[in-house]
Amino acid sequence: MINSSNHTDSRRQFLRQAGLAAATVAVAGPAGALPLGAAAPLADSPRKVGFAIVGLGKYATEQMMPAFKESKHCKIVALVSGSPDKAQRLAQEYGVEAKSIYSYQDFDRIKDNPAVDVVYVVLPPALHAEYVVRAAQAGKHVLTEKPMAPSVAECQRMIDACRKAGKQLMVAYRAQFEPFNLDAIARIRKGELGKLRFVTADHGRQVSPTTDKADEWRVVQKLAGGGSLMDIGIYSLNAARYLTGEEPVEVSATESTDRTDPRFKEVEDQVHFTLRFPSGVLATCTSAYSIEGVKRFRAFGSKAYLDLDPATDYYRHRMVIGNADGELTTSMKEGNQFAAMLDHMAECAQQNKTPKTPGEEGLRDIKLILAIYESAKKGRPVKV
Amino acid sequence: MINSSNHTDSRRQFLRQAGLAAATVAVAGPAGALPLGAAAPLADSPRKVGFAIVGLGKYATEQMMPAFKESKHCKIVALVSGSPDKAQRLAQEYGVEAKSIYSYQDFDRIKDNPAVDVVYVVLPPALHAEYVVRAAQAGKHVLTEKPMAPSVAECQRMIDACRKAGKQLMVAYRAQFEPFNLDAIARIRKGELGKLRFVTADHGRQVSPTTDKADEWRVVQKLAGGGSLMDIGIYSLNAARYLTGEEPVEVSATESTDRTDPRFKEVEDQVHFTLRFPSGVLATCTSAYSIEGVKRFRAFGSKAYLDLDPATDYYRHRMVIGNADGELTTSMKEGNQFAAMLDHMAECAQQNKTPKTPGEEGLRDIKLILAIYESAKKGRPVKV
């Protein structure tokens, strides 16, 4: 009998019954105690790992840069921007030296800045390849936002450039460093849901280019490389892969876009897709740019289901596990997924080790996204 | 600002803000106040409408027959069963005369029983056509369980037989008489979610033929006519239609069945499908026989979403409406959907008027189910 409860005691009792107490309670501990491939604490380092932030848009300035203050091993030491005023203001806030502010034109001079260990590219997707390659050529490790790039060729060029430079390349899949998501993966792997049968994942939002400057590039194909699927459907796709732990063998997709809506002259609105995995597990996902926000998934097993809603938000995640007896709302401390991701990148830079979400992970999603577009366009399943 | 709350006051406040107070509060009233095409109270009738129950399985005896006690205008007056002992016991419980107990062989004698107005067929789907046709030929109105029948030809034969007899034929879509579902439809039609963009619906359960006698026929193709899609996926399908208020023009489907599982030698396990509606709305649905139970849907609009989970259970429905400001859990009295459906059938029998869910409604779902199977088999979208 599962009790519906927010209390940690009830949750622990449930976990004990499921024989998962020891392993899983660790996940419920303080932020940073990430059991699944995330960074272990670094030994005392001589100095923090220095990051250059390329692109000072809304996401960078409002979500990601503040997380440096909660990271253990990371420091912003350089800024790259086309807006000198904004860069100077942020440089003061984050203690960045004036000489470490770069424009996009003189970005390559960063090779002479020994304080910069990692370049974090936070530009629209179509610009990722150029700046990742230039960063690698400047001898820096690279962290790039997702989607990695709009084409397989660009992704491959990014991977090759970093390999040639002997530098690490990581794609910023923050949800893979978020404690609720890691706990969900752990529960599925340990069989807490029984045999996994299918996953549903829904990601959507209103794209508002006329009222939100941060959305302007999102409706321009040559900058975004695609519509809702590239931008947020990728969360449904990536979740389907990390929840199942498998790689899909077939995708089927249906698109629906109102092309009279001025937002959708170039990019798509809705893409719904089903992934078939080798085990027989299916993942059925939705992605949309014309709805009130949703970021959720549910994993359905033979004995129980696990619901995370929101699943991939910045905060206020909510996990519910249900079986024939009822539902349990789990209680867990929110962790700073941005800080955990940055600390992992720092560790990989310092030890020159392959990140948990390397360029190859980004490339896999891009290949699948392109196959989903192909399936929707051709009206048939596409083998991958 | 929407407050998360179970209190009716908060809900009323929300409704007022949405300008829906007058119309929708009626829905939140006592069971039976069904605003959307359901039966209006009958004038005082000289006697209750008499029903014959054909098939005394678990669903009939545990869910549906007890609901007669809560109906206003219906009475069980005859039983048709292959188990005389069971029939006699139930006859005593429901006050049915011994002479009004029939076997399947002598069922046609029911034409001479003037107490029987309506025959309610609660047999496995493959037997519906035979008993609906025999009931019509006996001069009775007919209510039949869903799915209507495994083939279009059988559905058409049922419709034709009732038309020829001048009798009404209704398919027992109980969710279309359930107050939460009716409220969801009303909210969508009134634009409370903004412009409807897509629907997701998930229905699944563990089919357990070795431990639950009621599941034995469900894994036999010649009785069930199909697997999870026919039995419970039909709730996802029907909900997609009544929530959108449209008829789909295209279906795309993916099937996944472990044929080494002895339950699935004849019928399918999972079918996931997407319906495309003329307005551009999509409905993405799942159906499965190998998971812990789920019966839920969510409608996604441009301004808000509406979640019903469970959506199509017998009781304990839960509606949540969410927008950019938060979520509202609505509070509403549970109504007896079975009794509401039976009273609607009684009204249609007395007034000889077309039911809200006539044979044509059942036929539409069967055509779509067969198109979904075809799409999954051929690996391409099917126009409907």
UniProtKB/TrEMBL annotation, chains A, B:
Biological source species: Hymenobacter nivis
GO molecular function: nucleotide binding; oxidoreductase activity
Protein's recorded name: Gfo/Idh/MocA family oxidoreductase
Signal peptide as annotated in the record: 1-33
PROSITE patterns reported for this sequence: TAT
Domain Gfo/Idh/MocA-like oxidoreductase N-terminal residue range list: 50-173
Stored InterPro entries: Gfo/Idh/MocA-like_OxRdtase_C (IPR004104), Gfo/Idh/MocA-like_OxRdtase_N (IPR000683), Gfo/Idh/MocA_oxidrdct_glycsds (IPR050463), Glc-Fru_OxRdtase_bac (IPR008354), NAD(P)-bd_dom_sf (IPR036291), TAT_signal (IPR006311)
Domain Gfo/Idh/MocA-like oxidoreductase C-terminal: start-end pairs: 187-384
Keyword Glycosyltransferase appears in the UniProt entry: no
Highest classification ranks of the organism: Bacteria, Pseudomonadati, Bacteroidota, Cytophagia, Cytophagales
Domain of life assignment: Bacteria
Keywords: Oxidoreductase, Signal
